[in-house]
Design goal:
It is built from two helices and four strands; from the N terminus they run βαββαβ. By secondary structure, the chain is of the alpha+beta class. 32% of the residues lie in helices and 49% in strands.
Length: 95
């Protein structure tokens, strides 16, 4: 298992409940892949420096997690298929 840092940006047009459902879905993808979430932070709404899919702001979430390297590919594929996630970034924190 390796340590990863994951940041996702969710479209701002969703209500709090719908956004919570999206975050729960991401959490379930991580746990279904055999990973564990160490910490989770909601950074709230922030403006973009430029338009992303015709949006000027998004809701940011940070996950610190442990995951097998082979599961990262599956996780990235799920992010690409989820239209409500505007951007994501997975960084390996192992030095």
């Amino acid at each position: 298992m390796r340590d990863y840092e994951l940041v996702i940006i969710v479209t701002p047009e969703f209500e709090e409940e719908a956004t919570a459902d999206i975050v729960d879905k991401v959490k379930s993808w991580i746990t279904d892949a055999g990973g564990s979430i160490e910490t989770f932070e909601e950074w709230g709404r922030q403006k973009f420096a430029y338009l992303i899919r015709k949006h000027i702001e998004g809701q940011y979430f940070l996950f610190n997690l442990k995951l097998e390297p082979s599961a990262v590919v599956t996780l990235e594929r799920n992010f690409h298929l989820q239209e409500s996630i505007l951007r994501f970034l997975i960084i390996n924190r192992d030095d």
